[in-house]
Amino acid sequence: MTVTIAYLGPEGTYSQLAALAYGLDLEQRTGQPAELRAMPSIPKAIQATAEGLTDLTLVPVENSTEGGVTTTLDTLWQLQQLKIHHAMVMPIRHALLSRAQQLSVVSMVYSHPQALSQCQIWLEHNLPQATLVATRSTTEALEHLADDGAIAAISSEWAAQLYSLPILAHNINDHIDNCTKFWVLKGSKPNIQALSGQYTSLAFSLPVNGPGALLKPLDVLARYGINLSRIESRPTKRSLGEYLFFVDLETNAHSPTGQQALSELLACTETLINFGTYNLVAVDPSLAATKAKAQSTQALL
Q1: Res 190: pLDDT
Q2: Comparing 1-91+180-195+279-301 with 94-177, is the CATH topology the same?
Q3: Which CATH number fits domain 196-278: 3.30.70.260, 3.40.50.12640, 3.30.9.10, 1.10.287.110?
Q4: What's the helix, strand, coil split of the chain in %, to 5?
Q5: pTM exceeding 0.85
Q6: The CA-based dihedral angle spanning residues 213, 215, 219, 221, taken in that order and rounded to the nearest 10 degrees
Q7: Is there a smaller number of Cβ atoms within 10 Å at the N or the C end of the chain?
């Protein structure tokens, strides 16, 4: 049975490359082919699975340079009904695409806010004269390249190949080890089997905004010897100064220790959401890029 996967489109985004890589891995592990469906935004991609329009959604959740992808976190908290099926980490290598012949003539650079931030130092040093403009995806940024020879976009070298666009500069991200973690989210469709794993992700709000309120749930994790690999706060959007917290734990929530810890967390939190226990999947994005390029070439024949 074909598994449908929603992702942030259009064709050529890093999310699509990650979804292609995950689809190849899924077919190798289960024999189930994947059908990818592009969505115009991260919330739309997540909602597609929440509403049963797709089996899975693949969305970015954390970057090694810029931290959490807040749109993903906020949408998951709002819906509170999807579970994490898998996690995967993919290296991100940005390129500057432009029809300009040299950097000095570039006056505007378009890209997704995350990509602009991940190249901030390079941009300040090499393109101090350029105005930075945010777009909904790194691929949407490419639409502006035809407007003016002084326009540039930050995207992937893979996207440059797909759309036959010139690359003015390679590997412009500020840090060599720039990578993004993606979550594969599942809804309640019966053809997606629930999994177990080594990692658990939670989100919780606190009953009071006072001294020691956050310490109590953290103390529970410490007493059970559960390592907290990530914690990130987001505003509750109810009142200034009120926050909820997203945490990644190195434990299986179905184990006796995990169950006892979750039981105690319920007593010291206002709302506790368990997004599920899952494994980290290692995939090869280069294989996915090769397949995507072949499919794109075949479609033109």
Answers
A1: 58
A2: yes
A3: 3.30.70.260
A4: 35, 30, 35
A5: yes
A6: 90
A7: C
